[in-house]
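Box 3.1. Reading complex inputs
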Amino acid sequence: MLFITSCEKDEPDDPIIPNEQEVITTLNYTLTPESGTPIILSFRDLDGDGGNEPIISDGTLASGMSYIGSMELLNELEDPAEDITLEVAEEELEHQFFYETSFPTELSDVNIAYNDLDEEGNPIGLSTVLTTGEMGSGTITVTLRHEPNKDAAGVSSGDIANAGGETDIEVTFNVEIQ
Amino acid sequence: MWKFSRHIAVCAIIIVIPVLSSAQNCNSAISGSVKDESTGISIPYANILVQELQLQAATDSLGFFNLESICIGEYHIVISHIGCETQEIYLNISTDTSLTVLLDCNSLRLQEAAVTGQVGKATTQETESVNSRSIAQNSNKNLATMLENISGVSTIKTGSGIAKPVVHGLYGNRLTILNNGIAQSGQQWALDHSPEIDPLVANRITVIKGVGTVEYQGSSLGSVIMVEPNKIENEPNLHGEGRYFFESNGLANGLNLGLHKYKKSFGWRATGTVKKRGDNRTSKYFLRNSGGQEANIALQFEKVWNKMWNSELYFSSFNAELGVLRGSHIGNLTDLEEALVRDIPFFTEDNFSYSINAPSQKVNHHFIKFHTKYEISESQRFDITYACQYNLRKEFDVRRSGRSDIPALSLKQVSNFIEGKYQNYLPRNWKLKSGFQVNRVSNINLPETGILPLIPDYNSNEYGFFALASKGYQKTSIEIGGRYDIENRNVAEISNSIPRKIIRYQNQYSNLSVMGGFNYKLGENWETSYNIGYAARYPEVNELYSYGLHQGVSGIEEGDISLRKEVSVKNTLSLKGNVKKRLFLEGLFYHQVINDFIFLNPQDEIRLTIRGAFPVFKYEQTDARLIGFDIAATYEATERFNITGKYSYLDGDDRGNQLPLVYMPSNNIYTELNYKLPELGCLSNVGFQINSRFVFEQKELLPSQDFVAVPESYYLIGLKLSAEKELPKLRLSLFVRAENLLNETYREYLNRQRYFADDLGFNLIVGVNISF
């Protein structure tokens, strides 16, 4: 009798595919110069952790130029794509972007300054001002921290060292200054 | 005669035999002897109190007592002795009565405990128990930490509130936990899922440090932990016990109440526990969000239909909410590296708090069991058991946009279990136990999370058959057994690729396990036993199918659907005995080879995601070997003073890769000095204890096997004072314990919180137990 029942199919029901609203698949850092066409640094990983490699678009910037930087986060698993930037903006007190640059010389270094404030007067980093130096190549690392301590030493001026919290995004772009 | 027959069946500890004689109204005698339950040695000068008469007596130098001129009636007799668990017996005296009382006198000594209280069969395998007195004096602990003083047993923890027991280096799916005889069925696969059992419902917790127990279903590769609730005492009056404790570390409070009654062949017992704990503290700072709360209930009913047939119904509900250290919640490897170098974790606050926020776990486990037994004769019986377990686990992460209140993991498991057992005697006095078990498990992810599930949904059907034969002949007892298991598992997984689709898998396994052992008495005071067992474990769903980021350890974990079952051969050899009943010695040596041992192996690959780069871990198989020993010695210098020392050693090797195994317990030495006084002022059975534990550094591991250097060795000192007081109709017992008396700063290798924070600082526990 036992063997008879063991031969029967006992399949679980189809699992309900969750609505993955929270996922960030795409980061677009749009840099609009005072004059000329905007540059977009983007990181796009549609199938999440693992699977296919993410597609990273690096960028070339002009030397001695000032850009307005604007950050956009998307969940492209949803159709139409969900704008996660709005979630971050709504929870501005609990989020902060950090921009770390690494260039071989100080003269070629890129400076990224915050261009927005939350209601407590601390930066969020959705909007930035980027200024380039001399020609050279280096990297820009964008980090989004959830629940950082914005009051810790150096955090409001963009130093991540004492920020704490969890990293929701950490993406590095190669940047060429010409 | 029949009046007491149920007594014998119900309570294995007390054997009452009424002596037939012509009874007058006040002419009855109560006589008997008092013995040590574990050694069988008579206890002289034990105290006998007939409560209703306030009549006191003591056993003589041979352990006998005699009370005369007792009127017909109902009495409660309290038997106590220094260092032993006090027994209270209900007697309905209508004639001369003779009884043998077995007292539980040393929770530390290895005992030949009955493997199943009901069948009363001792195993040749090594067992060690925590008795109800020890449970009462550690009422603040959880199931795993309550077993820590048993040599060879350790715990794998996530912070202070989440702990899993480890026996001889194995835990989780490799260690079966039997709750009231039924394999605990929940999400045992994860390191941070503690067993959903309230130890305060138990009367005895037994660890079988064995080679395989063919009698039970479950995936044990040797050892088994048995949590056994108390049998309902034969007691027509309402009795009960209340326990309260307070802990200074975490400002924890706990209350446990039990009531029981047994009248006219029907007995019941109800037990309830509530506990609440706030943020624990290390030697220097509070561990934010490390509190927890629990509310549990258990109900037991027993009905004796006739001399041969009785039935039991058991229901329990375990409900816990456990906080996880806020500073241990990290987003990626950079966060982990930052956390590793900090002295004090992120999010640490100066103030104590009871609040529990994300990250946290909410767990509910409801259990119902119906058991009926039919004894055809003294040598033949049937047992039928049905059990259902409902396990709900929700885990909360710190999430965006108010989603912290939505679980990130939400799993529901329902298991239905039926067992039939038959016990009889074969020619040449072989006792045979045989039976079958059918278990159906349904495990589904609740879709509320908005996250791809960590493990897939599955239904699994398990069928098992076993036979276990045992025989005692002169100085030898022998046990041999076998078991055959079939498992069919149907899995439905959501694909990791886009677009999402459902992928189905079917796993089929079958396995034969066998064990054998013997125990041999070497003279009057020594015995040795040897056991060998062959067992297998099928790969679990997490090992086969998990895919994705494991946040707690910042790694991407990948299952492998081609994993085979792992196969173990374990040998144990034990020797125990005593020298002149003063020096008690015991040693247990074990050797276990596990071929195709499944483990998480770090890969060379670093995978890039939008949250940064993560190391990749894959479930792989290797050939593992565990060698270890547990030794213990107790020296009873005088009746009042004794000293105990225990040492546990374990060496685990990954022979396939020529590496040590990770997550193996550190070697450790535990010592205990006890001084006992029969009386002190108005108190009785007064005990003073100083204990210490030295834990060695886990030196075997290579630096490449962990994110950070393993913690250094540490030494902790503890104190315990306990006393009892007998009041009219009430028995009061009190205890005060101090843990980490010197407020040492330390980290423990098997506590995964060690990456982020120190372990617990000083803790003072005060407890009161009342029996009425």
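In summary: The helical segments of chain B are 2-10, 132-136, 143-146, 333-341, 541-545.
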